[in-house]
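Tokens in:
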């Protein structure tokens, strides 16, 4: 069975959106848990500090014992938290099939239509004109001052003449300075205006360049959205006609929309044969190492260690086998349920994993389940009330006798859907 087709654009878009949502929710949960642990630890430390400050020597010994007991209790709680996380992972593993049964796997392709979203213009400051400078004021006309009063009785006339001459000299100097400044004023004002005009022209030039870039980027965004929506329209139209590419793309969207726990990577590839209305699917699941070989965690006070307690080999083998069976049934269920127009009348599915060959050291694919089933036969099954291994047997599937040991199946003898 050779199926190499991978997710298309819309399928990958859906898959990444689901993963992002899943990661965000996980991050929020971890953040809340960390905040709670920090708050509890801070409160306990503060209570211990205050109690130690008030305590007598006898009380201190008692507090030390209580602190040791509290530490041991905290370590026990830590082990319990690790066990709770482990149990949560087991619940996710065991609920792989049931998690999809309450979900409508149909994907309304129209909801994938996108609307162009332009970011704000990045250089709004360039749209503000350069403020005109305040006009250079005209200099004030100088005023002739009165001579300083003459003091003393001797040489008054000469002193008076000297004072008047000093006033005249000062006034003349002020006048010519005023005149020079007044004569230079038009040129200074012209230079100021030219500098403002140059700054404004430079701003306008930069603004035009920035707006041209923004318009080009906006046009590119609009073209990208238009092309994406046009491709979506073609997909919707193709699905209406049941074309091979459209059916395969729609199936990849459906399966990409089915997000497993982030730590459990499951991938699908599929090809559609229109003459028989049959979809051939390959499912790739992680190897047996995905199932923790741990039953729970315990704290040993003597060594101050938290250690895992191994699960029985049977529990680990049974859990991985159940994962293999559940993913196979879940994949077929999602395909048939999502295909409301019944374009797919049968599914031929092979599920396996990849490992390293101990003989060659090279990657090797190990098939673990192969099954072919027609729609009407599969739709008679109530997956909420089945034992998956029995269901696969009922469907005539070839199933590995020991998936945990990576015992492969012989796919050549698996019947085709009738």
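Residues out:
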């Amino acid at each position: 069975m050779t199926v190499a087709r991978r997710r298309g654009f819309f399928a990958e878009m859906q898959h990444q959106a689901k993963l992002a949502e899943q990661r965000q929710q996980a991050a929020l949960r971890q953040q809340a848990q960390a905040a709670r642990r920090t708050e509890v630890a801070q409160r306990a430390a503060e209570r211990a500090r205050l109690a130690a400050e008030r305590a007598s020597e006898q009380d201190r010994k008692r507090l030390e014992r209580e602190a040791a007991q509290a530490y041991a209790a905290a370590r026990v709680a830590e082990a319990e938290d690790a066990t709770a996380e482990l149990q949560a992972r087991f619940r996710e593993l065991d609920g792989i099939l049931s998690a999809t049964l309450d979900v409508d796997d149909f994907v309304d392709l129209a909801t994938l239509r996108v609307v162009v979203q332009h970011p704000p213009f990045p250089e709004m400051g360039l749209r503000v004109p350069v403020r005109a400078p305040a006009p250079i004021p005209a200099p004030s006309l100088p005023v002739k001052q009165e001579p300083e009063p003459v003091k003393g009785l001797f040489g008054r006339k000469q002193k008076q003449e000297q004072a008047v001459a000093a006033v005249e000299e000062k006034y003349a100097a002020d006048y010519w300075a005023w005149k020079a400044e007044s004569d230079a004023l038009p040129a200074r004002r012209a230079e100021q205006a030219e500098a403002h005009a140059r700054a404004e022209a430079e701003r306008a030039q930069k603004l035009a360049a920035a707006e041209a870039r923004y318009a080009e980027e906006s046009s590119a965004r609009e073209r990208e959205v238009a092309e994406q929506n046009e491709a979506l329209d073609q997909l919707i139209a193709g699905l209406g006609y049941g074309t091979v590419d459209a059916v395969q793309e729609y199936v990849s969207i459906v399966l990409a929309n089915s997000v497993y726990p982030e730590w459990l990577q499951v991938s699908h590839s599929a090809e559609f044969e229109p003459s028989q209305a049959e979809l051939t699917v390959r499912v790739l699941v992680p190897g047996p190492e995905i199932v923790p070989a741990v039953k729970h965690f315990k704290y040993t006070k003597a060594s101050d260690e938290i250690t895992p307690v191994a699960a029985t080999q049977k529990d680990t083998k049974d859990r991985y086998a159940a994962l293999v069976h559940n993913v196979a049934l879940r994949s077929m269920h999602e395909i048939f349920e999502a295909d409301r127009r019944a374009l797919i009348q049968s599914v031929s599915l092979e599920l396996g994993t990849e490992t390293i060959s101990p003989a060659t050291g090279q990657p090797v694919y190990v098939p673990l389940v192969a099954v072919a089933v027609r729609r009407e036969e599969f739709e008679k099954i109530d997956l909420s009330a089945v034992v998956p291994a029995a269901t696969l047997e009922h469907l005539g599937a070839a199933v590995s006798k020991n998936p945990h040991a990576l015992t492969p199946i012989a796919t050549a003898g698996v019947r085709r859907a009738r």
